[in-house]
Write a structure and sequence with these properties.
single chain, alpha/beta, Rossmann fold, DNA polymerase, domain 1, seven-stranded parallel sheet, two-stranded antiparallel ribbon, 10 helices, 41% helix
Amino acid sequence: MERVATLSPGMDVAAEASHLPRPRAILFDWDNTLVDTWPCIGKATNITLTSMGQQPWTEAEIRERVAGSLRDTFPKIYGDRWEEARDVYYRAYEAVHLETLAPLPGAQDLLARAIDGGLVLGVVSNKTGRYLRQEVSYLGWDRFFVRAVGAQDAPRDKPAPDPIFMALEGSNIEPGPHVWFVGDAGVDIECGAAAGCTTILLHGGVNGGPLTPHQRAADCATFAALVDSRLDAPRA
């Protein structure tokens, strides 16, 4: 797989990313793209595994295995008891998810700068939709997003493109290269590519997956500089 250089602080972002189209909209993954939710996800996952008679996972195993949506992954992990495991996970997650929620460094500034640049922003996550929207509201970030689409909101979850179509409904923007899809995992790159979007792997990515993103960025601040550089580019 071709390796795309990761943009990082100190690089000439404008020169390195001149191949990217000027965005009209940016859709973001949520967990560990804009907010740090690993402590909550890890705790809820291991409570569920233990309750179901399985061994807890290490942090590395959790980071590798939880990118998919619950309705896609739980039947594979828990078999016929996946609905029971789902209920255990929901109880454990709901008990702590807001109190452990933390924006990643530079995330709020990134969103504010993108909005100031006239971009349409949305969220496409494999987190259950009601929890996703609770977290967006808790941070006061409703003002940034036209829509936050979570797992089970669309007919299929990521990596299918259905949530992208739903997130853009009513925006007068069609999926394509001028829609950037940003996430930290291979499932995000697959989802964006399935809809023909420009794909960005943020934070190095816990799992780059089988597809090569159009660009990589080390952190939210570097990605904000990338967005600024492309908004300065002439409109196509």
